[in-house]
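WARN no homologs supplied; continuing
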Amino acid sequence: MLCTYSKLMVGMMCAVFLISPLASDGAELKGDTLQTWDAYVETATLQMRDRAHATFLWVDESPDRIHRVRDGEILVSSIGDRTPKPVPSGLIHDWIGAAFIPHAKLEDVLSAAHDYDHYKNFYQPTVADSKALGSDGTCDKYSMRVVNKEAVETVLDGEYQACYLQLDAKRWYSIAHTTRLQEVRGYGRPDERDLPPDQGNGYVWRLYTITRFEERDDGVYVELEAMALSRDIPGAVRWAVTPVVRRISKNSLLTSLRQMEEAVRSTAAAGNEAKPSTVAASGYASAIASRTK
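OK structure emitted
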């Protein structure tokens, strides 16, 4: 699901640099910035573990939220009182989105989430290339090239790890993060090259997502909390840029959650076409569960 937030972040940061050319100068990730980020995502992970034993879904914390999502609305909200959140020499962006996919099965949603080779088809035109790199127990590794041509052309090459945990027959969650993220210079030209990690314009330095899946009410609820670390916005233009950043963040997450539902429908249709030529397909969720034994 990191493709969703890669798209969101690239589009958002390009809006920043369109408004403020001063911000497009190079930036390098500093040690205290990374230390603050590591502490932030550790706290988010601990909160997710608490959710596993309490109220699992964010939408269930409010009757209004659950009714709106159940009726087909995609909800997107920032986390906390201030987003993006200033940290030493950087910004932390933290958003959550929730959607309900009616008549879907959990195994179809998980199958689409694991179909890394087809992310480039599901999330066009932002994901230019994607590839599964293998699995290790309950964790998958994959790569993506994310391209954004709005305002300032931005291309990011990255590798990711996503780990899936099953709580019971109807509830799963995943935690995913970047293991490598590099800005591409000269995209599509003979002199194309990847910059060293943590160098370049600082559009996105780190990505981290927590995704929750629950099958009930004749469908599947999907919640995505997406966090990213980026360079700071100059104080002189922050007042003008922040509303634009928030609007693009919200719209990008809405679009990506809609694309995710289309990916689920596509995966389910492909699975149904394949079933007549197979014998008693066990379902993707069962296959994943077997890897935990």
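The longest strand covers residues 154-168.
OK
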